[in-house]
Amino acid sequence: MLSTLTYLQFHALFVVPVVAGLALTATYRLGSRRDVLTGTAILTGLALVYTTPWDGALIRRGVWWYGDGAVLLRFWSIPLGEYLFFILQTAMVGLWVARFRVDTERPLATPTRTRLVGLAVALVVVLSGLALLRSDSGLYLGSLLVWSGPILAIQWLFGWHFLVGEWRTVSVATLVPMAYLCGIDSIAIRLGVWTISKQYTTGYTVPLLDLPIEEAVFFLLTTLFVVQGVVLYTWLMDRWE
């Protein structure tokens, strides 16, 4: 399929202006500017390192592909635009969650039993993914859940109780960027920038957007990673100091 936009043009139209707008109007109610930006920078590096092997494996498997002319440059089978997405999404969400407040006065000390609850829930996510991987149609969603499990385990083991206590901030900070990313993802698919395989997806879609549910889950999880990561990092740094 001939793409209407290149991947880089897609970023220039829908992603870069939002990141620039958030950067120019940034407020740091969550914590100090240094802590928020440091936490976001760390998460950006982790996103690149952790996501690249999983993303490349699914591209090579044919879970999604790109329109003719949409990709100008690839590294290890992954388009340059994909790497930029890892960076820009993390920056966008980090700058967005910085506008919210959390109660960092809560002590870091947490009973081991409480921490293990978070680990157990993350394990359920991984096991659900493994069950989905038993069929071709569960490949995208199943691999996504398995891939997300270790990140959720680390974050929830450290501070799921703190995140629950700040559920309003975590919810709004996650759902607003997620909704925007789902919207522009739907546009990109309609324009032929990329195509999601029907063979490797469940067939369920997000109402109104006609977006594969796997894409929505991807943006939910990746946005949640950043929100939780920045919130927990800010809490840790505030208590440490």
Automatic annotation (TrEMBL):
What GO cellular component entries does it have?
A: membrane
Q: Which UniProt keywords apply?
A: Carotenoid biosynthesis, Isomerase, Membrane, Transmembrane, Transmembrane helix
According to the record, the segments passing through the membrane are 6-24, 36-54, 83-102, 114-133, 139-163, 175-196, 216-236
Residues of the Lycopene cyclase domain: 15-96, 152-227
- Give an example GO biological process: carotenoid biosynthetic process
Q: What is the membrane topology noted in the UniProt record heading this document? A: Multi-pass membrane protein
Keyword flag Coiled coil:
no
What is the originating organism of this protein?
Haloarcula marismortui (strain ATCC 43049 / DSM 3752 / JCM 8966 / VKM B-1809)
- Pathway given in the UniProt record: Carotenoid biosynthesis
**Protein name according to UniProt:** Lycopene cyclase
Database matches in InterPro entries: Lycopene_cyclase_dom
Subcellular localization is given as: Membrane
Any one Pfam family match given in the protein's UniProt record, by short name: Lycopene_cyc
Q: Which NCBIfam families match?
A: CarR_dom_SF
GO MF, one annotated term? lycopene beta cyclase activity
Whichever gene encodes this chain, its name is: crtY
